[in-house]
Amino acid sequence: MKDGWNARWLRLYSHVGTHMDAQKHFDVGKHITCQKPLAPTLAESKEIHRTCVRAQKRFMVHENFRFQPWHRKIKELIQAGVLGDRLHTITQRMRTGDGYGPDAYLGRQPYFRTMPRLLMFETGIHFIDVLRFLGGEVSTVFAKMRTLNPVIAGEDAAIVLLDFASGAQGIIDGNRYNEANHPDPRYTFGTTVIEGSNGTLRLSLDGTLTLQPLGEQEREVKYAHARRGFAGDCVYSIQQHFLEAFQSGSPFETNGDDYLKSLAVLEACYDSAANKQIVKL
């Protein structure tokens, strides 16, 4: 931070290994919005949050997937009761196709090749947060992880089964090795199916959202989304949320307290995969 710069808040978009430096900005009176992953470990993430609380400063994690327009619309429809009074299952499937071959990730994010934790730490955390946003808090986790490309260090494929406190279940089926059947898999980053007691919502790779009430034909749900910015312009949307909440004093959706819950689920995924057992939260 430059000497004499009198900003009230800072955005940290540096490498995850530098985020512990956020604490010194709290100490000099700055509010922070920080890019994910928050820190290399859950313990370090908790320390950043404790420092924020002690300094009585505001803190938000830049977790933007829940701000994608399709996820906002799905949340709206769930809250409106279009799927009924019970959620059954939320299934998220991702295939980015950028992780196969000897030159995997070199064109965009070469540091991915040496990360000991890759798919769930870097990408899967987005979907953990989205599934919590849509389905509520997670009670148990079971995960299996694999490394399909031998030239990288970490996992590039995972299947995660989540039990929600509500009784619903969630499935994350992620794989960066294989390809999607769409020219821009990074628009929605996958397909999503949400099933409830009254029907099903389906999100396609092109952003199309459909509703199929039980016993009826599937029909398209119209909503605003555009190929502008990143993934439906979710970066703009989360920054707008930050500014509005900062000015009004209302809570950030992805504040430290909330985001640590997503990180606890992430850690449970790795514990489950390592020990081949269900992990309770």
From TrEMBL:
Q: Name one Pfam family in it.
A: GFO_IDH_MocA_C3
Q: Which domain of life is it from?
A: Bacteria
- The GFO/IDH/MocA-like oxidoreductase domain covers 71-201
Q: What is this protein called?
A: Predicted dehydrogenase
